[in-house]
Design goal:
The protein is an alpha+beta fold. Helix content is 31%, strand content 23%. It contains four helices and five strands, in the order ββααβαβαβ.
């Protein structure tokens, strides 16, 4: 599993994006233990999130391979499930106040690379932790 950190100030007020790549297509995460390892690995940053006065938006993303299952009728539901599960984890284990957290499912609408190869699609299956300036309570 790969973790990519992008740091910058954008027009939308985004301060930091931590992008966590997901395993296989159609899964919300490789496994719960793998998610714990990755999020616990970023927990140093996550713990400092508690001290920073910004809102935190978790964004789920998919590749462009359509999914249609009972659990996930579309990539929108899958990407939202990815984000919601990270929100739950950060609330329980990161002890971040739930009112500071939000979840968004972007499906395949915001790829980081063109979905033209298996490797590129793998990079697009991700969850991003986004700090939002001026969005906390």
């Amino acid at each position: 599993m790969d973790i990519t950190i992008f740091i910058g100030i954008l027009v939308a007020g985004v301060l930091v994006i931590i992008s966590i790549l997901i395993g296989g297509s159609g899964s919300w995460f490789i496994s719960y233990p793998a998610m714990m390892i990755v999020l616990d690995g970023t927990m140093g940053a996550t713990l400092s999130f508690r001290k920073i006065p910004y809102g935190i938006r978790i964004e789920g993303h998919t590749d462009n391979i359509s999914i249609q299952t009972v659990q996930y009728p579309s990539n929108r539901e899958l990407s939202t499930a990815r984000a919601v599960n990270v929100v739950k984890y950060l609330t329980r284990h990161g002890r971040i106040a739930p009112q500071r957290l939000s979840a968004a499912g972007n499906a395949h609408a915001k790829p980081v690379l063109p979905n033209t190869s298996h490797a590129n699609r793998a990079r697009n299956r991700r969850v991003e932790i986004v700090l939002l300036k001026g969005k906390t309570k």
